[in-house]
């Protein structure tokens, strides 16, 4: 009698174990992102700010052209130093990167670009973090890929590197060509 | 000498308190709303901390936004919607009742109801079948066959009685 009841339990137990195993495996391979990216697959919101190097005021709606990256950075952010050489490499490859200097002082930000190099076409100066909140940023660095139509098609929280660029960004750019 | 040290320590501590931003509101009601709201909004950078408790840069920015919007006359609902558009439901400690959140709100109750129903049904089934034993059809057949063989089966007994026939 007992063994009969145990036999009845084996199949549901196997199903539960298989489901949990599948869930565990998919979670292992998933990029960890605490906050949902609310800007993905939506038009780039309109924001305007002064550029870091100069006095010109730029509106986000005025940025037109091919695919481009919007990168949030700050001289206070250690990971920004780590990803910077790769951004310089992307610039050499002809990728357009527009920066948002986030919660920084003008002096520190300029010194950062002087010492580390400037991969940006220009950088918005956002000392109070207004643009960051408009884009749903939680910290720096974060990078968005914007399509020629002005739509946000990718959001990376954390360091931008060759692996992420080749596996997530390039297929999006090449896929539409 | 000691008096000078204590005086300067007091002076510096007073200065450090004074250097913190003092928030001014249009009314005490707005001030209460501000402190209530920042307790209800979750820091998007930290794990389980409100923007009131968190020292993260983003929490500071979000507190500033809430402060500015309250002073501009925005309602609590409008401020929550503004932040929800940017950070999703994650930002709200108490998610709205509706859409996919319905699972969050009513899922546990539904699961508990299902479990309770299954438990009650099984208990009833067990109670109603208590005197009958739990033999399978095959086992029942085997029992009947054994009873027949031993001559104790009710049908066998009846047959024997019939065989005896009437004394008349």
TrEMBL record, chain A:
Subcellular location: Cell inner membrane
InterPro entries tied to this protein: Periplasmic_diS_OxRdtase_DsbE (IPR004799), Redoxin (IPR013740), Thioredoxin-like_sf (IPR036249), Thioredoxin_CS (IPR017937), Thioredoxin_domain (IPR013766), Thioredoxin_ResA/DsbE_sf (IPR050553)
UniProt keyword annotations, A-Z: Cytochrome c-type biogenesis, Disulfide bond, Redox-active center
GO BP term, example: cytochrome complex assembly
Protein topology in the membrane: Single-pass membrane protein
Origin superkingdom: Bacteria
GO cellular component: outer membrane-bounded periplasmic space; plasma membrane
Chief location of this protein within or outside the cell: membrane
Molecular function terms from GO: disulfide oxidoreductase activity
PANTHER family: THIOL:DISULFIDE INTERCHANGE PROTEIN DSBE
Family: Belongs to the thioredoxin family. DsbE subfamily.
Name of the protein: Cytochrome c biogenesis protein CcmG/thiol:disulfide interchange protein DsbE
Organism: Pleionea mediterranea
Lineage, opening ranks: Bacteria, Pseudomonadati, Pseudomonadota, Gammaproteobacteria, Oceanospirillales
TrEMBL record, chain B:
Species in which this protein is naturally found: Pleionea mediterranea
Leader peptide range in chain numbering: 1-18
A Pfam family: CcmH
Domain of life: Bacteria
Residues that span the membrane, as ranges: 102-123
Any one annotated GO CC term: plasma membrane
Role description: Possible subunit of a heme lyase.
Annotated Basic and acidic residues bias: 159-168
InterPro entries in the cross-refs: C-type_cytochrome_biogenesis, CcmH/CycL/Ccl2/NrfF_N, CcmH/CycL/NrfF/Ccl2_sf
An individual GO BP term: cytochrome complex assembly
Protein name: Cytochrome c-type biogenesis protein
Keyword Cell wall biogenesis/degradation on entry: no
GO molecular function annotation: metal ion binding
UniProtKB keywords: Cytochrome c-type biogenesis, Heme, Iron, Membrane, Metal-binding, Signal, Transmembrane, Transmembrane helix
Domain annotation CcmH/CycL/Ccl2/NrfF N-terminal: ranges: 9-147
Homology family: Belongs to the CcmH/CycL/Ccl2/NrfF family.
Spans annotated as Disordered: 128-168
């Amino acid at each position: 009698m007992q063994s009969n009841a145990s036999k009845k339990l084996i199949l549901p137990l196997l199903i539960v174990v298989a489901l949990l195993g599948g869930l565990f495996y998919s979670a292992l391979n998933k990029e960890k992102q605490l906050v949902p990216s609310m800007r993905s697959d939506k038009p780039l919101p309109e924001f305007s700010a002064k550029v870091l190097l100069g006095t010109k005021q730029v509106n986000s709606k005025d940025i037109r052209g091919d695919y481009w990256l919007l990168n949030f950075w700050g001289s206070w952010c250690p990971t920004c130093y780590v990803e910077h050489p790769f951004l310089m490499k992307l610039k050499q490859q002809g990728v357009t990167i527009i920066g948002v200097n986030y919660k920084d002082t003008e002096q520190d930000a300029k010194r950062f670009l002087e010492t580390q190099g400037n991969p940006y076409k220009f950088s918005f100066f956002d000392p109070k973090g207004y643009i960051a909140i408009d884009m749903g940023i939680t910290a720096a660095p974060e990078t968005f890929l914007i399509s020629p139509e002005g739509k946000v098609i990718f959001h990376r929280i954390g360091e931008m590197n060759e692996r992420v660029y080749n596996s997530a960004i390039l297929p999006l750019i090449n896929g539409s060509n | 000498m000691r008096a000078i040290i204590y005086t300067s320590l007091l002076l510096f501590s007073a200065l450090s308190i004074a250097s913190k931003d003092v928030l001014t509101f249009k009314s005490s009601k707005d001030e209460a709303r501000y402190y209530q709201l920042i307790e209800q909004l979750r820091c998007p950078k930290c794990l389980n901390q409100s923007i009131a408790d968190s020292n993260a840069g983003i929490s500071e920015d979000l507190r500033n936004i809430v402060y500015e919007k309250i002073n501009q006359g925005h309602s609590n609902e409008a401020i929550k919607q503004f932040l929800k558009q940017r950070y999703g439901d994650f930002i709200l400690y108490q998610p709205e009742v509706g859409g996919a959140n319905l699972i969050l709100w009513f899922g546990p109750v539904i699961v508990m109801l299902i479990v309770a129903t299954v438990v009650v049904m099984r208990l009833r089934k067990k109670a109603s079948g208590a005197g009958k034993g739990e033999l399978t059809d095959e086992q029942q057949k085997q029992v009947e066959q054994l009873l027949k063989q031993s001559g104790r089966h009710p049908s066998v007994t009846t047959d024997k009685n019939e065989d005896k026939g009437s004394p008349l």
